[in-house]
Design a protein that fits this description.
six-stranded mixed beta sheet; 264 residues; five-stranded mixed beta sheet; alpha+beta; Metallo-beta-lactamase, Chain A; 32% helix
Length: 264
């Protein structure tokens, strides 16, 4: 579960080479929630590579990823199937360990912890804890490329669903603020999302995400003050323009926002 309409480029995205050390193999799973599909990011400048988010269980996609180089590690931003379902099969194809924050998604390797630095060749990948969309969300910073790989915490188009009850809006707002600080202090130049195109104004995008959440909360407070209290009633007003195909996601985000306003 990923995003709802908000902002960003509407141009089609097909993946490809971002830099000498970063490329995207786009999974063939487009949908209203996954946009053009899941971005599987391949990190590395030599024969050895690291894979971030192998994506869904699609044999053709996973074989294409396995053929990008000698895969040394498979990292997961979180455990949602559109990002993690293919990890076991990619492990079978490459024998590379699957590493994640959640022990349930690890395979043949250690977990990941915030502040850890993993390497492939001469490329460092820094692990950043970014809970909120889910409790196990991670992002990854590649200093040599000025790139923040954000999984579902920030998308190339639209805004992220806070996947209540596992997702938590307070944690998500803290993660966005922390990513903004990191982008500013580490001079990040690009956000590489889990879905949709690369974004080249990290601070502007993160400011817009934070403002969007502020506006949504104000809207929900106003509707709540008017006597409408159920999530269904709130969605009917605040998310009136959201397509029926993603209404369930609007309900999840609304429940997360109500829990936040109630101090839960």
């Amino acid at each position: 579960m990923s995003g709802l309409p908000m902002m960003g480029s509407r141009d089609a995205w097909s993946g490809g080479v971002h830099s000498d050390r970063l490329r995207c193999v786009l999974a063939p799973n487009p949908s209203p929630m996954t946009l053009d599909g899941t971005n599987t990011w391949v990190v590395g400048s030599g024969e050895a590579v690291m894979v971030i988010d192998p994506g869904p269980q699609d044999e053709g996609h996973l074989r294409a990823v396995a053929e990008t180089g000698q895969v040394t590690h498979i990292l997961l931003t979180h455990g949602h199937p559109d990002h993690a379902e293919g990890a076991r099969r990619l492990h079978e194809l490459t024998r590379a360990p699957v590493r994640a924050l959640d022990p349930a998604h690890r395979l043949g390797g250690e977990g990941l912890v915030a502040g850890e630095v993993t390497t492939v060749g001469d490329v460092e990948v820094h692990v950043v804890a970014t809970p909120g969309h889910t409790s196990d969300c991670l992002s990854f910073f590649v200093p040599s490329e000025g790139a923040l790989l954000t999984g579902d915490t920030v998308l190339g188009r639209g805004t992220t669903v806070v996947a209540y009850p596992d997702g938590n809006l307070g944690a998500y707002l803290e993660s966005l603020t922390m990513l903004r600080d990191l982008a500013q202090h580490q001079q990040a130049t690009h956000l590489l999302p889990g879905h949709g195109p690369v974004l080249d104004d990290p601070i502007g995008v993160l400011d817009a995400y934070l403002e969007h959440r502020r506006v949504r909360l104000d809207q929900i407070r106003a509707v709540w003050a008017g006597g409408r209290r159920t999530a269904e009633e709130i969605v009917d007003i605040v998310y009136a323009d959201v397509p029926a195909t993603v209404r369930f996601a609007a309900l999840a985000s609304t429940l997360a926002q109500v829990a936040y306003l109630e101090g839960r």
